[in-house]
Amino acid sequence: MGPVYEEFELTESAYRHGYDDGDVAELLRGRHLIFRSRRGRQFGYEFLGRNDAGEYLLVVGRMVQSDGRKMLRVFHIDRMPDADRKRFEKQTS
Fold first, then answer.
1. Domain boundaries defined on the chain
2. What are the CB-based long-range contacts (under 8 Å, 24+) for 35-41?
């Protein structure tokens, strides 16, 4: 089971590669994989999935408390590396 959160927000750095809130929402509504970040526990979670345009995306974020609610703070969105794309396709097909 993945992290439980009530909403998400993107940091300024998340917009660096041209993706936005809509892309993250589309990924989270569709089939996706969630796992602890390979960069260490303090980095949170990595999400692998696709947006409605069919792009394979990697989203990285961490859980934070904001006004008493759990929120996913997304700080990175980019195209999925080839190895992750193969992993995603294998596990979701």
1. 7-88
2. none
